[in-house]
Amino acid sequence: MFSPARPGAADAYRRIGVETSMHTVDQHQIVNLLFEGVLREIVRARGAIQRGDLTTKIDAISRALRIIEEGLSTSLDRVDGGELAQNLSTLYDYCMRQLVLANARSDESLLQEVQSLLEPIAQSWKDIRAQALGLGAESGETSPQGQRAGPVAGSAGTGS
């Protein structure tokens, strides 16, 4: 479902504001961090709208857009990811359109919609990781360095 990391990917993640030490993070952890980042920025934008803080709203929505476009969307494996990758691509495109509208209209309900679309996928991704490691889904524990959950994640993620 997700393509292997490409040269320069670490720079892209730094540009979109996801803080991590890339040398100890596998592909699955990167996707988790991207979901955490986009959801954090949506919450930040919602708070900014409630406070009438235009600058923070614009910054947070811009970051959320970049995380989806440069992180989640570009990491999809459109060749081998099949229907799941195509469905996620369509969802990410929709989320980006809704974020642009939310920014233009200062509409918190559009941000809530995007958040409610992404949260179950983010949670499923975390659950897949826990299952791949033989942990309970609620444990939140991560694997030792270098352990990958990619093949399991690609096959088990079709239910989302």
TrEMBL record:
CC terms in the record's Gene Ontology section: cytosol
Main location: cytoplasm
Annotated CDD domains: FliS
Stretches the record annotates as Disordered: 136-160
Keyword field: Bacterial flagellum biogenesis, Cell projection, Chaperone, Cilium, Cytoplasm, Flagellum
Pfam families: FliS
UniProt-listed InterPro entries: FliS, FliS_sf
GO annotation, biological process: bacterial-type flagellum assembly; bacterial-type flagellum-dependent cell motility
Family of the protein in this entry: Belongs to the FliS family.
Protein name, entry field: Flagellar protein FliS
Provenance organism: Hylemonella gracilis ATCC 19624
Source species taxonomy: Bacteria, Pseudomonadati, Pseudomonadota, Betaproteobacteria, Burkholderiales
